[in-house]
């Protein structure tokens, strides 16, 4: 085993291997480093350390047995879902050996109740499969994000995932009715309640949502469903500036009868990135404009969505907030508009090293924040390109930065690190958050800790201590180990 970490495993490698293969069979354990790459290199190409081994349990009880064994032998462990997280949380810690517990084989849809609008699933179910199963029962699981073909429900729970439909349906925190979790000592907690209302004291499940696997390994979830939308309309609207985007948003919430399910900000520079990644994508409007909004309105029953959007276009134009726009006339055209949103991420990735952020601000502060941040970036590094897009209806911006292409990699990293500090100070000054959806993981730990006051830090540390006093589970994520 080629493990270069500076601590050795508390028991013999062979003992761990024997235990895992007795429990899971030979396909349930991976110990050949040649097969680690899929689990250690993430979507962005960042590489974590190598794990000691990878366990692939297929039942909650097997997860519990593995965790109990690790607890008994003081073996550090980390859970991995679809490995689409963007803050290095599921990557093995490069400085400390860990057993990786992959949930990929824990992937059964357990039960769907179309009258209770709920669905219980194993945590390793891929989000897209859950959405498809809900649709087959004329229901809808609204979580929607670019990685939905690979991310898992357990990962979505543990990162409190957001995505495109948050403004209508909420984040994962609002979409979970019950959870089943293996605690760091191996106990299996069954909180798989399918109740829409339940006020029995502390709401334990909420502690695990967004905990990034630091308090337990999620093995099952009861998800809240919605009626399946029967009709939806997608529109791309050109607007002059951010202030107009926000004015239009406030108007759209009202005039679309609260049926707005997505409201995304796409500056022109992002559209250009989308065309770089997908050259066959048509430019939807005749002329280029500085800023666009991509919005979707949907309804599960009869509703005149066209009239709503046309009315929004008209009043928006009268008020100077709309310059031009297109209402998709077919599903193909709507899909093309959404492909711009997806392809711009690929285009950004193709440009190489860049700063990714997922900040949030009170929606009404976005104009002032963007002005201040654009000004600060222009002052500090005029050649750095700002790529600021996002789920504007949630106040969530991906204020990303592309450094000048002529710098070498080290210089780019140093510049982006400096600019991140400037940006986060401005987020602070505008009472925002440095993480609206990706979480803290290992990547954002330093700025996160800088922001905590002593009371918060003491409470968070106490919580970790209560669940995992030995610091065996996902140590070093969110809080330092
Ligand atoms: C192209 C792209 C677009 C994205 N868009 C969005 C977006 O719009 N909104 C958004 O919120 N995120 C987005 N993400 C980030 C990512 O998809 C989410 O964070 C997702 O919820 C992670 O799920 P996963 O199964 O891949 O988790 P992983 O990456 O495997 O793990 C994430 C964290 O959760 C822990 N974990 C995983 N499974 C479990 C479990 N069963 N029990 C306990 N802990 C566990 C891991 O240890 C790790 O800390 C995007 C990512 C990509 C690549």
Automatic annotation (TrEMBL):
Residues 47-228 form the FAD-binding PCMH-type domain. Pfam families: FAD-oxidase_C (PF02913), FAD_binding_4 (PF01565). The keyword Iron-sulfur does not apply. Keywords: FAD, Flavoprotein. This is FAD-binding oxidoreductase.
